[in-house]
Amino acid sequence: MDKFFTAVQLDEDLCRGCINCIKRCPTQAIRVRNGRAVITKQFCIDCGECIRVCPHHAKKAVFDSLDILKQYEYTVALPAPTLYGQLNNLDDINIVLTALKSLGFDDVYEVSGAAELVSELSRQYVEEHKEQWPIVSTACPSIVRLIRVRFPNLIPHLLPIQAPVDLAAAIARRNAMEKTGLPSEKIGIIFISPCPAKVSAARDPLGIEKSNIDGVLAIKSVYPKLIGIMPKILDEIEELAISGRIGIGWGICGGEASGLLRENYLAADGIENVIRVLEDLEDEKFSNLEFIELNACSGGCVGGVLTVENPYVAKVKLKRLVKYMPVARTHLRKDEGYEKAKREIDPYWNEEVEYKPVFRLGENMRDNIHKMSRVEELCSIFPALDCGACGAPTCQALAEDIVRGVACEQDCMYVLRQRLHKLSDEISMLDRTETNGGMK
């Protein structure tokens, strides 16, 4: 089995063994064993739902601290457009970008700027690859991972273009090397992320061999520092913004799809809704759709678990911010190295996304059929209550765990109670037999 990096980890000291996380996980990656949750890494897609619902804060996302800036001679911040939706009464993005430089970064490059480039490339790709319709967005790493392990038939529908953050990182590194003359290893490209999935995408990318992102900070850890700096730099604001309405719109559900300037698209957010769309797509229930945008978090990236603002409030803030902005600034940047970047940086995937059969029970087809038969047999014994008392989210999940050799039938309270009753009856019958025998 391949190694899988996951940015969501468990703090065992805080875990109380409740079943909130196992009932919420969309890929059934969590079990409760010996009174503590256990995350199966190869099942996890880093959607962060377990972080969202854990009442004891035992699930945490792994990300870097600002100390990472000390590891490089020159650093560039990549702010996600979601960051702008966290701030009250923001009317100029340059305030945030200047504040990031005051925070310790040497330069900034907006991810929303790269998003406009991806929108331009996507428009062309969708038009030229009608045989692939509907094409599925690959901007959300959790969605790509979900399709890789659960919907292998949909892999050919994936849009093979780098996510905006990856393209932004590549452009920012090239610009920094030209500007400073420093070698690549002395330049740190740091993404400010709304979710743990982006952390995993930076350390274990899909579709590209290696990410240009050197570190990932959480929006929630940068936010309090920014609001302390921003009022102090109002007289020193630099003109750093490179994106317009389309790029910043990527921060909310539907923003990417609307940037294609096409009508036949579908945009869904929230992992349950996403799974329903993928199931319907696999069953070929959609017709005349050209593009599907999917976001694991409710509301889009503004709903990420590493943000601080209510996602629906953040959505309103972003819409208000872009109201008087140009539709896009991509065409305005051709004199600033845009065409050179397009020539030097390949924005398309250079690796194929392959199906990972992590849920498969057997080593081969025959073994798999045999084990599935055993799962059905076990499910007929269990009560089909899906109560979670066994530590698995459903009775079928418990049956699969038993077949994999990591659980036993007695983990089901219903089965255990039946066997205890049966044992008690047998002991009572034996006791009566011995008593009657003694009387004779």
Number of helical elements: 16
Q: Provide the residue-averaged pLDDT.
A: 91
Which class do the helix and strand fractions yield?
Answer: alpha/beta
Which oligomeric form is depicted?
A: single chain
Q: Helix amount, in percent?
A: 40-55%
Indicate the low-confidence ranges by residue numbers. none
Q: Cα distance, first to last residue? A: 65 Å
Query: What is the CA-atom radius of gyration, in angstroms?
Result: 26 Å
Shape: elongated
Main sheet attributes: strand count, strand direction, barrel closure: 4 strands, parallel
Beta-strand residue percentage: 5-15%
Q: What's the SSE pattern?
A: EHEEHEEHEHEHHEHEHHHEHEHHHHH
Largest beta sheet: strand ordering: 6-5-8-9
Counted beta strands: 11
Number of domains: 3
Give the tags.
16 helices; Alpha-Beta Plaits; 4-stranded parallel beta sheet; 11 strands; 3-stranded parallel beta sheet; elongated; alpha/beta; 440 residues; 3 domains
